[in-house]
Amino acid sequence: MRLDLLTVNPWHHQSFLFHLATGYDRVEALRKMLAYVQNFRDKESPYTVQWMARIEKDLNTSYFRAHTMYETPDKLYYGRDMNTITVFSVVLNPVS
Fold first, then answer.
1. Full residue range of the structural domain in which residue 26 is found
2. 15-33 pLDDT per residue, tens
3. pLDDT score for 63
């Protein structure tokens, strides 16, 4: 069983992948997701992504948490054709 948790940005109303969890059944997938949500700040680094949708002319800024810089675009592009969004920068934010 796979559980995908999405988040929606209130400014530009775009949805992004927050995390995906897999398990043998729904209960295990839900337990894994709960554990992730409770601890993700301790295990993943914060990134800022600047991007633009092809149909728009506004530069957008979104914030993600990921293990590596390479996971961040996967969360941004989740459920989309990669040709619909142009990424200008992925920046690791300082941790305080």
1. 2-92
2. 999 999 999 999 999 999 9
3. 92
CA 94 to chain centre: 18
Work out how many domains the chain is built from and give that number: 1
Closest CA to 50 of 95, 8, 15, 85: 85
The string of DSSP codes covering 24-86 is SSHHHHHHHHHHHHHHHHHHSEEEEEEEEETT----EEEEEEESSTTHHHHHHHTTS-GGGEE
* pTM confidence score: 0.82
Q: How far is 94 from 96, CA to CA, in rounded Å?
A: 6
Amino acid identity for residue 59 in this structure = L
Instruction: Judge whether 70 and 45 are in contact, CB under 8 Å.
Output: no
Distance of alpha carbon 49 from alpha carbon 23, whole angstroms: 30
